[in-house]
């Protein structure tokens, strides 16, 4: 019997455990297995195999019983996730339904989640911009949060490393606050977008309109073909999963790559309860898992643990990992875990018409759009609010049919639509300032279906965000007016935090263990064999879509972890 | 396989009731004659010409399914009520059933509902018309035969002269 017990523990033991299989967990899996580590990847949701488990990927519009619309009952039962732009009849199976994983909204927060192998990497908007030192130096310069323990030079080679593998398209624009990367050919702008680009360049020395940099393979390189991925086919139904692997997802890219090494064990339906801390050894030894199907509690062991459960769930797991040594959460000696969470402000939109370029239109579809890098407070503080915003921009021209008729007239009109004028639009992506008063914590009384404490979320906008919305409207109105756009309309959705799906922080990186949870290598200061490389590690939010930075931080942290293991420091 | 070794501890029982709770859709059960009437209504909105009309493309079934699944009970009730009104108006104006009316007479009946004082009639009109247009334009026949539908464009060209672009 004794031997059986030893064997049992041996069977549950790996070199490394990765919690989560989304965009950063997938990268951790790839890097660890490539470096020869036997790696267990735990995913709380169901398995989603590339192509095989994309049930709607090849469906035509008429094959959806409700042509994309969700049944009344689904919307009624899911008021939160129904607010997400990407949640529809073709994608609903990839989103967490409201009742599946309840949480406490101390303040309104729309928590959008994807519990499955691949996580939200199947669903993301695929925009991938690098940070610059204007972002990493932000907190220190402007006096908020804590100083980042790293600078651009630390991450630059890792950006290059992940970009080449993931496949990022874009132009080398030479903009200091948005460094260039390893780009595949960029998507085209249309005539009106080029017009706006030229008009903005003419009027403002410090403002640029560029083509968005995005994780689409516009020209496959050998490394992409080796992954079994092909050129993006411009279907623009990415969120259903792409059978071509045209955009980057864990399912199409990092996870199959990790599987090919023979070193990965992927275990779906595994809800991580907590991380096991061994006081004698002074380090984490494994994780407790609840099997989502059988509800059994299992333990798995490893020398190092990567926590990539998605920003807020990473907070939840660590806060729930209590021991005699860490009574308020693993590595949470300073009590700051869960605090200083932040997000991106996506409330503001502006739209207009354009009467020019009527002799031109577009052909095909584009899974991307132009981008306006942050231009406010970049080189110095120049407004009455801190930091700034980036913006999306696009122009499009649609055909319209007069639908006032009935009978033969209506039919003829529907089948002979007239090309309308150009419409232009932009949305704001504002940096929010992490504050102690914005936090997540464990609710003392409420539990979820797995007996886990529910997460209490308390995040809100502040005066800085309001000023920024106002400035975005003013500046964009000025830029639109200058470009000759007319009928300019602004709208503030007042949407709650969360719908941006860019929640970050709570387990922030920093130089000082007194004021941060993670060091410059994403290791918990107080428990060095636990690494956090998803959104939870973010010290500040900048304005860029964050996923590319999580990928780079993850690859860098794995490289450090494995070299430390070789030196027997871990 | 590591997870073959199980059974270290089973967590305390939890409440899974909420996860399984499902309510039944109310459902719009139209009688066969109401269904036939709905088919005549959608075929009045988009009739057969040298190409099939909405009835032949089974758009009335789509309208019925949409109202059943995607709208609140009040709207479902108004569909039935509106169909009754269609018959009443046909009888009042032309002393015959909607089905026996000419194409022009049918359009007149629907126009009366569009311009009616009663909100319910207007709502019936815009609901059925909107769904008919949607069901027709998104039908396999129309998408594959009558309009330019590109499932896989394979490209995006930003600046194309208007006169060279085939307008759907």
From TrEMBL, chain A:
Span of domain Glucose-methanol-choline oxidoreductase C-terminal: 434-553
Gene3D superfamilies for the chain: FAD/NAD(P)-binding domain
Co-factor requirement: FAD
InterPro entries per UniProt: FAD/NAD-bd_sf (IPR036188), GMC_OxRdtase_N (IPR000172), GMC_OxRtase_C (IPR007867), P2Ox-like (IPR051473)
Protein name from the UniProt record: Choline dehydrogenase
GO-annotated molecular function: flavin adenine dinucleotide binding; oxidoreductase activity, acting on CH-OH group of donors
This protein's UniProt keywords: FAD, Flavoprotein, Oxidoreductase
Pfam families registered for this protein in UniProt: GMC_oxred_C (PF05199), GMC_oxred_N (PF00732)
Domain of life: Bacteria
Domain Glucose-methanol-choline oxidoreductase N-terminal: 151-323
Family: Belongs to the GMC oxidoreductase family.
From TrEMBL, chain B:
Domain of life: Bacteria
Pfam families: Gluconate_2-dh3
Annotated protein name in UniProt: Gluconate 2-dehydrogenase subunit 3
Lineage: Bacteria, Pseudomonadati, Bacteroidota, Cytophagia, Cytophagales
């Amino acid at each position: 019997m004794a031997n059986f017990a030893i064997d049992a523990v041996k069977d549950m033991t790996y070199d490394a455990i990765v919690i989560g299989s989304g965009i950063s967990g997938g990268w951790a899996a790839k890097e660890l297995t490539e470096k020869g580590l036997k790696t267990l990847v735990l995913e709380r949701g169901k398995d989603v195999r590339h192509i095989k488990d994309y049930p709607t990927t090849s469906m035509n519009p008429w094959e959806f019983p409700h042509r994309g619309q969700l049944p009344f009952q689904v919307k009624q039962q899911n008021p939160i996730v129904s607010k997400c732009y990407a949640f529809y009849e073709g994608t609903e199976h990839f989103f967490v339904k409201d009742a599946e994983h309840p949480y406490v909204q101390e303040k309104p927060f729309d928590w959008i989640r994807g519990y499955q192998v691949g996580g939200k990497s199947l669903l993301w908007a695929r925009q991938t911009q690098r940070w610059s030192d204007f972002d990493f130096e932000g907190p220190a310069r402007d006096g908020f949060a804590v100083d980042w323990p790293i600078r651009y030079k630390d991450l630059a080679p890792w950006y290059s490393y992940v970009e080449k593998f993931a496949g990022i398209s874009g132009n080398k624009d030479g903009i200091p606050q948005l460094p260039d990367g390893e780009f595949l050919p960029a998507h085209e702008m249309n005539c009106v977008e080029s017009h706006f680009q030229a008009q903005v360049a003419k009027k403002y020395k410090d403002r640029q309109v560029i083509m968005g940099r995005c994780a689409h393979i516009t020209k496959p390189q050998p490394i992409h073909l080796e992954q079994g991925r092909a050129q993006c086919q411009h279907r623009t139904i990415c969120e259903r999963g792409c059978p071509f692997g045209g955009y980057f997802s864990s399912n199409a890219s990092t996870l199959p790559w990790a599987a090919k090494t023979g070193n990965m064990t992927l275990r779906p339906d595994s809800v991580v309860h907590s991380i096991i801390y061994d006081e004698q050894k002074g380090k984490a030894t494994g994780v407790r898992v609840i099997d989502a199907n059988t509800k059994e509690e299992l333990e798995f062991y490893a020398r190092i643990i990567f926590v990539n459960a998605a920003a807020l769930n990473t907070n939840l797991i660590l806060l729930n990992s209590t021991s005699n040594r860490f009574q308020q959460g693993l590595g949470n000696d300073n009590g700051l875990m869960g605090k200083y969470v932040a997000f991106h402000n996506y409330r503001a939109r502006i739209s207009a018409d354009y009467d020019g370029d009527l002799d031109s239109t577009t052909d095909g579809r584009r899974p991307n759009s132009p981008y306006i890098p942050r231009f406010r407070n970049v080189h110095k503080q120049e407004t009455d609010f801190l930091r700034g915003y980036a913006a999306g921009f696009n122009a499009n021209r649609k055909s319209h049919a007069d639908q006032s008729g009935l009978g033969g007239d209506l039919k003829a009109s529907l089948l002979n639509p007239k090309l309308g004028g150009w419409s232009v639009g932009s949305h704001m992506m504002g940096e929010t300032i992490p504050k102690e008063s914005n936090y997540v914590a464990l609710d003392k009384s409420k539990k979820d279906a797995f007996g886990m404490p529910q997460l209490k979320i308390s995040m809100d906008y502040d005066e800085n965000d309001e000023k920024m919305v106002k400035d975005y409207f003013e500046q964009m109105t000025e830029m639109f007016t200058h470009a000759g756009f007319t009928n300019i309309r602004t709208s503030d959705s007042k949407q709650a935090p969360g719908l941006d799906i860019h929640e970050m922080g709570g387990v922030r990186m920093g130089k000082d263990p007194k004021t941060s949870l993670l060091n410059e290598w994403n290791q918990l200061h107080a428990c060095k064999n636990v690494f956090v490389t998803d959104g939870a590690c973010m010290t500040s939010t900048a304005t860029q879509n964050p996923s590319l930075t999580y990928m780079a931080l993850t690859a860098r942290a794995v490289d450090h972890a494995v070299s430390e293991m070789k030196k027997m420091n871990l | 396989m590591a997870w073959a070794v199980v059974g270290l501890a089973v967590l305390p029982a939890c409440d899974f009731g909420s996860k399984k709770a499902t309510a039944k859709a109310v459902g719009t059960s139209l009688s066969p004659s109401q269904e036939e009437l709905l088919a005549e209504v959608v075929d009045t909105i988009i009739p057969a010409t040298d190409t099939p009309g909405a009835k032949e493309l089974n758009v009335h079934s789509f309208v019925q399914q949409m109202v059943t699944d995607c709208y609140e009970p009040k709207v479902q009730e108004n569909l039935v009520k509106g169909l009754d009104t269609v018959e009443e108006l046909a009888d009042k104006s032309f002393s015959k059933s909607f089905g026996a009316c000419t194409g022009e007479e049918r359009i007149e009946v629907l126009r009366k509902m569009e311009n009616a004082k009663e909100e319910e009639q207007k709502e019936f009109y815009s609901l059925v018309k909107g769904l008919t247009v949607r069901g027709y334009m998104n039908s396999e026949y129309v998408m594959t035969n009558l309009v330019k539908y590109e499932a896989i464009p394979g490209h995006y060209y930003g600046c194309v002269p208007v006169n060279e672009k085939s307008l759907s």
